[in-house]
Amino acid sequence: MKIPDNLLSSNASPEWMNKADNAWQLTAATLVGLQSVPGLVILYGSIVKKKWAVNSAFMALYAFAAVLVCWVGCCYQMSFGEKILPFLGRPNTAFGQAYLMRPAFSGNIPNATMIYFQFAFAAITLILIGGALLGRMNFLAWMLFVPLWVTLSYTICAFSIWCQEGWLYKMGIIDYSGGYVIHISSGVAGFTAAYWVGPRATKDRERFPPNNILLMLAGAGLLWMGWTGFNGGDPYNISLDASLAVLNTHICTAMSLLTWLLFDILFFGKPSVIGATQGMITGLVCITPAAGVVQSWAALLMGILSGSIPWFTMMVLHRQVRLLKQVDDTLAVFHTHAVAGCLGGILTGFFSDPKLCRIFYLGQDWQHYVGLVYGIQEGRANAGLKQMRVQLFGILFVVILNVTSTSIVCFLIKLILPLRLEEEELQIGDEAVHGELAYALWGEGERFEIESSNKNETTESEGLRHEWPSLGLKDSAQEIQPA
Fold first, then answer.
1. What is the model's pTM?
2. What's the pLDDT tens digit per position in 35-51?
3. Which of 133, 267, 269, 324 is 20 to 30 A from 62, comparing alpha carbons?
4. Chosen domain end from 371, 398, 414
């Protein structure tokens, strides 16, 4: 398709395109992408039992690729395109070159850049959902789940909250960078899907140690640093707002990590590395809906709350609430994303500064974006209470949407494929699912090839003699590699 002459200048930089903004947006999008690949690929592959390392990492990698195809195929237009319903855009492809070269809705960058940036957010949402399903979901079922969920659930939430034609956007909800669209959604959807898929094998539920804590920290570090683009890219320009969002992100995250660490030391006597990682994640999640619309002192307070309230729900309430105990949420996505995301949404309504909202919502009716604290201070308590009601109503909508849509997706898949792996596959892990292993001691690779070729000659009882039967590992060798 020929590109209209008025869209491009002789040097391929139209007057409407801001080169600096476009460069930052591409960089921010890549930082968000690096959170998933390799960030969460590494984190998932190392935080699980050794026998699930390949499967867990590959679930993340597959979701990243599958979402991109769906995104340019129809999902971007359903999330940000022409409205057909108050909560949904018209399904349409985003392949056309003329469309890609036009200005995006922000007006300063092309659609191609915006599509790439928004894709990275959609992809990480699916990968976060996968964290609740590690160690037992049928990979073929996961291959169907990803495109169905991003089409039937994510697009509705994104359009409603982020698109200027969305009904919750018009109501005045504040979701700076995805506390609702990404984190509450992934936490609730992951928990719901975990309910329908069913639990891991009994042994895995009883003991599920990380196979490599150092690699887990490397993945967590990529996740943390990548959040610079996650929150810093949402003004769609290089601005004071973007700088503040980046600083607030790291303040809240650091404070949340330290708070979680302190609670672990006080109640369990030891500084847990895994606990600190969870505190880091809850801080990142909590600040996301508020990053550029709150002052840094508020970000510090949000860090204290995000390091304590999700800690309480995970370490105390989880053991007392029957439903939480029954559902096998592998990486506690419900606590780290749903609980922390809801907390962030509520605190956004409490702490949002109308002056900062004016910068972020430039050119729009910003006066109704008033946090309760500032509403009381300025004699507009009703405006602050209204903002809190909108934030709470948004949480209710996202929860209902994701419980419903995720259940429908799981039901549709179950008509075709089992959602959960067979018991024998659950006992063996990666070798049974993919025919591949993450770790092998020196010389074990050759033994693996020999035993794989003779697999049909062994009996089922011999095959299940050890956790890693095809490797033929002895007990002493197993002690070298953690389970």
1. 0.89
2. 999 999 999 999 999 99
3. 324
4. 414
